[in-house]
Amino acid sequence: MKTYMAHANDVVRKWYVVDAEGIALGRLASKVAAILRGKNKPTFTPNVDTGDFVIIVNCDKVALTGKKLEKKYYRYHTGHIGGLKEIQYKTLMANKADVAVYEAVKGMLPKNSLGRSMLTKLKVYRGAEHNHQAQKPEELKLF
Fold first, then answer.
1. What is the mean pLDDT of residues 17-35?
2. By C-alpha distance, which of 40, 32, 54 is closest to 107?
3. Across 8-72, where does the E strand assignment appear?
4. Does residue 30 form part of some domain?
5. pTM of the full predicted structure?
6. Cβ partners under 8 Å of residue 47, min gap 6
7. What are phi and psi of 89, to 5 degrees?
8. Is 9 within the bounds of a domain?
């Protein structure tokens, strides 16, 4: 029995719109990461980017369960000595909710060049509007 292996030029990509309102951040990120990888397709091949494009709207209305708004921090480094910065998720969700969702999905993708190319297919918007109507995206209900 032969195993099907997808090639990069055989991949057919679709566009999906996900409304993040009221969905927990981690659950949203794991479902979106699986779609970006292409794990929802029967033609999934681990070493080929077979995933689809995903547009996330209303990311400012995503939910964080428990006390994560007060106790969880987004940390990054500027590259300079002593340049570790921390932002509380309460502040991050108020000012840059799209960064919080983007980083959550980024953390669930492979940490290599293939994962970086998968991440280019993710589009995150704070409001209900996006500028990808020409691609005719389908509404995707995750839960």
1. 96
2. 32
3. 15-19, 53-57
4. yes
5. 0.92
6. 114
7. -65, -25
8. no
CATH code for the domain of 97: 3.90.1180.10
Of 114, 89, 108, the residue nearest 99 (C-alpha): 89
d(CA 78, CA 142): 35
Domain count along the chain: 1
Distance between CA atoms of residues 92 and 10, nearest Å: 40
Task: Write the pLDDT tens digit of every residue in 98-110.
Answer: 999 999 999 999 9
What are phi and psi for residue 73, nearest 5 degrees? -125, 145
Q: Which residue has the tokens 């389908």?
A: 138
Give SS3 for 93: helix
DSSP reduced 3-state for 133: helix
Q: What per-residue confidence (pLDDT) applies to 143?
A: 80
Provide the residue count of the chain.
143
